[in-house]
Design a protein that fits this description.
Layout (H helix, E strand, L loop, with lengths): L1 H13 L1 H21 L14 H12 L9 E7 L9 H15 L4 E5 L1 H4 L8 E8 L8 H16 L3 E6 L11 H18 L2 H24 L7 H28 L4 H28 L7 H22 L1 H8 L7 H9 L15 H11 L1 H16 L7 E2 L11 H13 L7 E6 L6 H13 L4 E4 L3 E2 L5 E8 L6 H21 L2 E5 L1 H35 L3 H26 L15 E2 L2 H29 L4 H28 L7 H33 L8 H6 L8 H7 L3 H9 L1
Parallel strand pairs: 5-11
Antiparallel strand pairs: 1-3, 1-4, 2-3, 6-9, 6-10, 7-9, 8-9
Helix pairs in contact: 1-2, 1-10, 1-12, 2-8, 2-12, 4-6, 7-8, 7-9, 7-22, 8-9, 8-11, 9-10, 9-11, 9-21, 9-22, 10-11, 10-19, 10-21, 14-22, 14-23, 15-20, 15-23, 17-18, 19-20, 19-21, 20-21, 20-23, 21-22, 21-23, 22-23
């Protein structure tokens, strides 16, 4: 592989105008395609194989217009102090508002609180439920304006009016100012790392091109724009990382005396090999999201995987082409000055691998591996302890800041009707083929009323054909509580008896039940996902490092990082430690998608750092250095680059902590913590300690396995034979 990539890098460098033109043409074609592509189909969210989805499918089939992902709004009316909501004057205001809202083009129906009995026992609070035929993301401005107008009308009459539900739910903003801040921080870190404007700029340029190509392709092929969130985040992250590594290797090769063209080829042949395998680990982690079985998550993972593949291709082709235009500009100022003076060029003039903090740290760890390993393991174990209390769920409006109308609506409903009104359950009954459908539904209703934990049961609503019915059940507890989860399981357990007695099928669904099912599906998929992703990555890393111990050590280190990151998340978002510092107003369960999401993203980035750092150690060992010397050499060449890459990622992810959405805060904190733990504690501390203890055994591979595994020459040993003998001749040729 090293020779092949060497030829790719050389070709891109020498034919740089052609390569740049091809990439510009490709991006232009994709942008035109994206602009002319028909609108993507509306976003849908389904969880195949769950009872919630089966119930929604049944209701959609038997009650035309019912959609599992349709938006819903609850208009909560609180009468002026000392008044009743049902007085003639107040009732007229509420009914006028309900009539105005029901006239919207996207409205499926509005339930009048006085007709449905949605009035609190105290008579001060009422709510109207509005159902829409589109998802919250696809509601028009006119539809949303009707809700805000309802608030204004009610407040003008002296009411307190709040809007709950998904209709006015703000779409999480993952792009824009946060990315701009991240790019600015990345530019500063790159400038400090390289000390040259061009060297700092090229990784940013190639990363932005990669994002542009990836996002344009996603839109052009008709994928939903919501899939771009993860693609944009990771495209920026790995795009900078991969270019950073290749530019650093190019500078090192120039310091060794090679010409610009030869240095570009060798940088792509060696560092490019690491980029290819690092990219493959990210792609595996993202494509592995298909294991979960949620179509929206699968699509998001595949879109992000495609963007990562684009970032790898750009690093191997466009970057060496751009290096051709900035052959000397990416080098340190002292080196460029000596070139201009045509003086003799000592390698140390721009040597980036002279002893520094990374080298001194590596030597410290190599001298005291046992102590460093024990301290690191104890520290990471302590950080991971809170994970034992991890509770998964789907935080709802109760986790919103009190400044939002959704949170105020939640609180008003809880005060007026009880906490269960914020998480009603929908019971779907299939009575097709039942001899006496109404008797079966009455029996089901009686069983629901008698169930402990149920506050109220609405009258059954039959469809026109009379072969299906729908009942609303209000729990006594809030939607995210354990008691409500237990109630859902209890109700589902009663379905078997009903079917045996009447032949009717009873299914429990609704937003609360769906959230419970999502959490369960995520929990069930976690171990298979880990097994698939980690197993494939271990096999891939065996090919890269031709070792058994190194890949296993890499995977175990990743598990430590994820465990510590989840410990931080639990401590902040469940226990409330330091929650106020980042604007978390309500503690509760951790978002159920967080484990899979965090594992997928962090695993890819962790393997990036592992490959970048350990390949230089493997290279030094393959070239004759002792195992311990190879560790120090690896740090001398790659430690600074890994630190820079990790610092950029931590800064980018930490920016999301300032977002208003609790989910965004959780993602930002989790990703920033995981990258910090993995880069600085696992890869920079525990990895060298373990390798120092293992010595030569770290690079051991059984003979029979060595014959089976392909030798991809990721350390570029094959490149040294034909070109290493005459670096000075190539240097003189470059000067001529």
């Amino acid at each position: 592989m090293a020779k092949f990539l060497y030829r790719v890098g050389r070709f891109a460098f020498e034919k740089r105008r052609l390569v740049v033109l091809l990439w510009v043409g490709l991006m232009a074609a994709l942008v035109v395609g994206a602009a002319s592509a028909p609108p993507a189909p509306p976003d849908t969210f389904s969880i195949p194989g769950t009872e919630s989805q089966q119930a929604f499918d049944l209701l959609e089939q038997r009650f035309p217009g019912t959609k599992s992902d349709g938006a819903q709004a609850r208009i909560v009316f609180v009468a002026p102090e000392g008044q009743q909501i049902g007085s003639d004057a107040n009732k007229a205001v509420v009914e006028r508002i309900v009539a105005d809202v029901s006239g919207g083009a996207q409205v499926n129906g509005v339930l009048d609180p006085f007709q449905t009995g949605a009035v609190s026992k105290s008579g001060t609070t009422a709510y109207a439920t509005v159902s829409y035929g589109a998802t919250g993301d696809n509601l028009t401005d006119a539809t949303k304006a009707a809700l805000t107008d309802a608030m204004d009308t009610g407040e003008a009459a002296g009411f307190t009016v709040e809007i709950g539900g998904s209709a006015l739910q703000a779409k999480p903003e993952m792009a824009g100012a946060t990315e701009a801040i991240g790019i600015a921080i990345a530019a500063v870190v790159l400038m400090i790392t390289f000390g040259a404007f061009a060297a700092a700029g090229l990784p940013l340029i190639t990363a932005l091109v990669g994002i542009g190509v990836g996002i344009a392709a996603i839109v052009a092929i008709g994928m939903s724009t919501t899939t771009t969130t993860l693609a944009m985040m990771l495209g920026l992250a790995v795009g900078i990382d991969y270019a950073l590594f290749i530019v650093s290797r190019y500078r090192t090769e120039r310091a060794a005396g090679y010409s610009a063209a030869e240095a570009a080829g060798r940088a792509v042949g060696t560092a490019g090999s690491a980029v290819v395998f690092a990219g493959l680990t990210v792609v595996i982690a993202l494509a592995g999201l298909a294991v979960v079985g949620i179509p929206a998550l699968t699509t998001m993972g595949l879109a992000a995987a495609g963007t990562v593949a684009v970032a790898v291709t750009i690093a191997l082709t466009l970057l060496p082409a751009l290096l051709g235009f900035f052959q000397n500009a990416v080098l340190p100022k002292a080196f460029r000055k000596q070139q201009q003076d045509r003086d003799s060029l000592p390698a140390e003039s721009m040597q980036e691998d002279e002893p520094g903090m990374g080298t001194r740290w590596a030597r410290f760890v190599v001298r005291r591996p046992v102590a460093v390993l024990l301290i690191g393991l104890v520290g990471m174990g302590a950080l991971a302890l809170p994970m034992t209390s991890l509770e998964l769920g789907m935080p709802g409006e109760e986790a919103q800041p009190t400044s939002t109308t959704q949170r105020r609506a939640y609180d008003a409903l809880a005060e007026g009707f009880g906490p269960g009104f914020n998480g009603p359950l929908t019971v779907a009954l299939d009575v097709k083929g039942v001899s006496d459908p109404r008797a079966a539904v009455e029996r089901a209703t009686s069983a629901l009323v008698a169930t402990k934990g149920v506050v109220s049961v609405s009258p059954a609503i039959f469809n026109q054909a009379g072969d299906a019915a729908m009942i609303t059940v209000v729990p006594a507890t809030g939607p995210s509580t354990t008691a409500t989860k237990d109630l859902v399981h209890t109700l589902r357990g009663e379905a078997g008896g009903l079917r045996a007695a009447t032949g009717a099928t009873m299914l429990v669904t609704g937003a609360t039940a769906m959230n419970i099912d999502v959490s369960q599906k995520m929990s069930d998929a976690l171990l298979p996902y880990l097994a698939v992703v980690v197993g494939l990555a271990i096999l891939l890393l065996m090919v890269v490092f031709r070792s058994i111990a190194v890949p296993i050590k890499a995977a175990l280190g990743f598990l430590l990082s994820v465990g510590a990151a989840f410990g931080v998340i639990v401590a902040v978002f469940q226990w409330g430690w330091l929650a106020g510092l980042i604007g978390v107003h309500q503690t509760g369960p951790v978002m159920s998608m967080m484990p899979i999401f965090l594992i997928g993203v962090v695993f890819g980035l962790a393997m990036d750092y592992e490959v970048f750092l350990v390949t230089r150690m493997r290279e030094a060992f393959a070239h004759g250095e002792s195992a311990r010397e190879a560790i120090v050499t690896g740090f001398r060449h790659s430690g600074r680059v890994v630190v820079a890459a990790a610092a950029i990622m931590i800064a980018v992810f930490a920016g999301f902590i300032g977002g208003g959405e609790p989910m965004i805060k959780m993602m930002g904190l989790g990703l920033a913590a995981a990258v910090f733990f993995d880069a600085f504690i696992v890869r920079m501390t525990l990895v060298p300690a373990v390798l120092a203890l293992l010595g030569d055994k770290a690079w051991w591979l059984p003979g029979w396995l060595a014959k089976i595994l392909p030798n991809v020459d990721v350390e570029g040993e094959s490149l040294n034979r034909p070109v290493a003998a005459e670096p000075e001749r190539e240097l003189e040729s470059a000067r001529a």
